[in-house]
Specification:
Length: about 325
Amino acid sequence: MDLRNLFVFDRSQKRGALILLGILLAIAGGRWAWITTNNTGEEALNQLPPGEERKYEKKSKRPRTASRTYSPKAKKDRKSSRPIPPLAINEADSAEWTSMPGIGPVLSRRIVRFRAAKGGFSSVDELYNVYGLDSSVVDRIRPALSVGTYQVPDTSPLVLENTEKPQQEKADREVYTKKEPPAAPVDLNAADSAQLVQIPGIGAKTATRILKVKKLLGFYAEVSQLRLVYGISEENFQRMQPHLQVGDLSSYKKYDLNKTKTRYLSRLPFMEKPLAEAIVSKRKSLGWFESWEQLSEVSGITPDIIRQLQYYYYL
């Protein structure tokens, strides 16, 4: 007897086997669906056949509880709900200020410096004058604050031990304030920071800001544009102006105002973004600018801005 003939089926036998297999799968699936929909928890597990109970437990997910959820706001609320320790504002150091809610290391150092500059706080209300300290933070910690007694740091031992140090510092300040200006005016577009700090009224930070503004402009067209630099007062400008000049500008490139975009115009230190948008909007309504007189029709523009634009753009 050939065993291979046992596994050879005709078309009708194959169709019957497939129908039988489908019926069995439908019965098994319906039974599983009935168990899962009509029974929950322990009842569902009790209805499962032996061996499938553990498999079902592995596949089921434990519901997330509120304790496992993470929320930055909830964490902040838990931190803000901590009791605020009492603090004497005239006696606390930076570390103690940092322990207060809403106050970090930067603010704590700023409070201590402000207190030293004033010679102590006379009331809690003076905390509102500390730069960067929000009034809501002060209102929140105010019930835990007291004035206390401010003790001026005793620096007399340092003065007695180092009698030459204050004299040296005074000499250094005199050298700084009475620096010798250069023999000839310095070209504002060619000077580096080392040359700029030799000019009266210009220190290291101001020199860095001057170079940053020059990078935004592309080049200085006139010395008066130094007024655009943050931190330069009119008094300082008058001190440095005689020692600065602007050289030949013919080598610097100009750009077409009819092709420039808002983001490039708004980078200029003398140009606010709304004004740059108004210029581009006016150009679109006209098609293009044919003369600088048409630019004067833009709302908010001044003759001084038009004059400065002519250094960097053409029509």
